[in-house]
Amino acid sequence: RRAQQELDSALLRSLQPLLDELLLVADYLDMALAAPQTSSEAKALAAGVTLTRQKLTQALESVDVRAIESAGAFDPARHEAGESRASAEHPPGTILATGRSGYTWQGRILRPARVVIAIAPPPAEG
Predict the structure, then answer these.
(1) Contact at 8 Å (CB) between 74 and 93?
(2) Edge to edge, what strands does the sheet with 113-119 contain?
(3) Mind listing the pLDDT tens digit for each residue in 7-37?
(4) DSSP string spanning 20-46?
């Protein structure tokens, strides 16, 4: 069992630079898809970017790279709090938005998801 763990760790160390670069490409595709698509040319381009992003996701999943779920409660083992916002509608520690997707490989964190978390609003002065 220990030998298998050491082999998995060595494999991850050798794959890490490639996976980091592929995740960066995924980030850029996500940013392109988040941009406003006001013209017909922009919509056509977005359709191509969507297909490219889907293919990249399939390729990553084929080697057991999975996106980290970024909804619900903040988990410091899987999420990185990039920002916090006061919210009366959500309990403190609830994830409000994802700034950068996080990923795992074979259950190990490749990079945590960068998220925006809710904090309690300041007390009302009165």
Answers:
(1) yes
(2) 79-86, 113-119, 95-100
(3) 888 888 888 899 999 999 999 999 999 988 8
(4) HHHHHHHHHHHHHHHS---SHHHHHHH
